[in-house]
Amino acid sequence: MSVWLIRLRAFAVTTSMQPHVGGYAMRFVTYAALKEKGFDYSKEHLWRLIKAGKFPKPVRGLGPENKWVESEVDSIVAERIAARDTVAA
To answer: Helices in 1-89 by DSSP H: which ranges?
Structure first.
């Protein structure tokens, strides 16, 4: 895949594919970006978590792959930090 095509896709994700809700643009993360945020799960395990209600559902129809709302993913991280801090206290 050419560098130009990669940049074009990144631009599309950061601009036109972000619906405006409540006056701010929602950001989306891909499966690869989930790994960068520390969710190093296989796709199969991730779907099991989604089915069990332990991980947010992806938003479909925003391109060739599933995307998750970044704020929902960040809230999972915040919940885990809070649970860790509660147990430690």
So the answer is: 3-14, 31-36, 43-51, 70-88
